[in-house]
Write a structure and sequence with these properties.
The structure is a single chain. This protein has 17 helices and 19 strands. It is of the alpha+beta class and 494 residues long. It has 3 domains: 197 residues, FAD/NAD(P)-binding domain (3-Layer(bba) Sandwich); 96 residues, 2-Layer Sandwich (D-Amino Acid Oxidase, Chain A, domain 2); 131 residues, no CATH class. Strand 13 and strand 14 form a beta hairpin. The longest helix is centred in the C-terminal third of the chain and has 23 residues. The radius of gyration is 23 Å and the shape is globular.
């Protein structure tokens, strides 16, 4: 038994963004909290390292943003979207800078520095931290929690009233409690490395879409000094069905960056590639059980479209803290007492995340990649020409105030117009003998042909996918409210 552990109110398994934020918030509420982290910080972590403005707001409140800014991270204010290795959109990120409540930029902060700073903030607030302590088993019940762990060659036992699983996509806490969701439809597999030799020093995040990476994408997120975080991510379901080798995807992606991306001819990897997985919000279960809750990756708090998990992880922790505090004050640790956690996170995340989950579900069908990529190129063309469309219609990919009704209004208005003009455009294209991103009759035929190929290739999978799309569409449309705001835009602090 570790000294003093018997008197702990809450054990937090995992010291990443979710665990550190939860420990910080509980400690400031006067709760006796202990973090068990299996590694020694600072340590590397597979991630795009992108912290968007909502995440920076949380870091500022925790008191660690200034510390991180001392190393002068490159502010991310612009983005590039590359489709089939043609730059389709280049410009300012259209939904940054529109609110006084949020910074007008993001940062690329390597996880070794970010996580270390956040864990230090939790310690300064009064949380206890045991690093290099691997949780091996959890016995959680309504009467309390017992944790088995290992540090070096020692076997340890900890006791507490409650536990929070912030121990990642392969959560020991979630597995022990029987609530971890493991569904390849909602799991993404990624590989990333750091690269050097990139010309220029502009805060421009680049996103790359092509059939090899579908459904998924590649990224290049710049750091100061000609360095960048480069990586690829793809849906686990696709990887399994098609036998995709993700390390090879990264290698091929880096080669194409050198050939086609401006400023990357001398790009060289300066770290070994690392792989990992994330579980997205579409697979989120109720995330509570007798004796505890799951937060962060363990609870599937990850954006279904972008795979961004740093900010949702911290937000899930801020939602869990008052529920755990209430349970301690009531001296009740059963699942029913902790059920308000699901009520809270559904109210906060669902308005945006259910729509994003629908978008991700539609894109799961690899056979539809060619027409989807052409549609994306067309959308980027419109966004480049019309800032209002870029801000409204593009909000499904990294938007800070995701309003499904507004996004659908922008997109479907354009879709309807393109379909009406498909015939005249087809005739005009024949006369000009050149292609166009605008929709033609040939494009509509291509959609139908791709659909039929999908059905013929795997009828059972196609039927299940179609049912998933229909079920999620009904859920989104039944909740669609023209004036509804995204709670994540306002955040969780007064």
């Amino acid at each position: 038994m570790a000294a003093g552990a018997r008197d702990v109110d809450v054990i937090v398994a995992g010291g990443g963004p979710a665990g550190s934020t939860l420990a910080w918030d509980l400690a400031r509420r006067g709760v006796r909290v202990l973090v068990l982290e299996r590694t020694r910080f600072p340590r590397e972590k597979v991630c795009g390292d992108y912290v968007e403005p909502r995440g920076l707001r949380i870091l500022q409140r925790m008191g660690c943003l200034e510390q991180l800014e001392e190393q002068t991270p490159l502010p991310i204010t612009h983005s590039t979207t590359v489709v089939d290795w043609r730059r389709r959109y280049v410009g300012e990120i259209p939904f940054y800078g529109g609110s006084d409540r949020l910074p007008p930029h993001g940062y690329i902060i390597p996880r070794d520095r970010l996580d270390d700073a956040m864990l230090q903030a939790a310690e300064r607030q009064g949380a206890s931290v045991h690093q290099q302590t691997l949780v091996t088993a959890v016995h959680a019940a309504s009467t309390g929690v017992e944790v088995e762990a290992r540090r070096g060659g020692r076997r340890l036992r900890y006791r507490s009233r409650l536990i929070a699983g912030a121990d990642g996509a392969n959560s020991v806490v979630g597995t022990s409690a029987g609530v971890l969701v493991d569904d390849p439809r909602y799991t993404a597999v990624a590989q990333r490395a750091y690269a050097a030799g990139i010309e220029g020093d502009r805060g421009e995040a680049a996103f790359f879409f092509e059939e090899k990476l579908f459904p998924g994408y590649g990224w290049m997120f710049p750091l100061a000094g000609g360095r960048a975080n480069v990586g690829v991510g793809i849906l686990s379901e696709t990887r399994r069905r098609l036998g995709v080798n993700v390390p090879e995807l990264l290698f091929e992606f880096v080669e194409r960056l050198r050939r086609f991306q401006p400023g990357c001819a001398r790009l060289e990897l300066c770290s070994s590639p690392l792989g990992g997985i994330v579980r997205t919000y579409g697979g989120a279960g109720h995330n509570y059980f007798d004796g505890g809750v799951l937060v962060g990756d363990a609870g599937s708090f990850v954006d279904p479209m972008t795979g961004e998990g740093i900010t949702p992880a911290a937000e899930s922790a801020l939602l869990a803290a008052p529920v755990l505090q209430d349970a301690l004050e009531a001296r009740r640790f059963d699942a029913e007492q902790l059920a308000p956690f699901e009520t809270a996170f559904r109210a906060y995340f669902d308005p945006a995340m259910t729509f994003l989950d629908l978008c991700a579900c539609i894109l799961r069908n690899r056979t539809l990649a060619p027409p989807w990529l052409k549609a994306l190129a067309r959308g980027c063309e419109l966004a480049q020409a019309e800032p209002a469309f870029a801000e409204g219609g593009g909000g499904y990919f990294g938007g800070l105030d995701v309003r499904p009704f507004g996004i659908l209004a922008h997109i479907w208005t354009r879709v309807a117009g393109d379909v009406v003009l498909a015939g005249p455009r087809s005739f005009g294209a024949l006369l000009r003998q050149r292609g166009s991103n605008a929709t033609t009759v040939g494009d509509l035929v291509a959609w139908q042909a791709a659909w039929l190929r999908s059905l013929a290739a795997d009828p059972l999978w196609h039927a299940r996918w179609t049912m998933d799309v229909q079920r999620k569409s009904v859920r989104v449309l039944s909740r669609l409210q023209p004036t509804a705001a995204d709670p994540r835009a306002a955040g969780l602090f007064d």
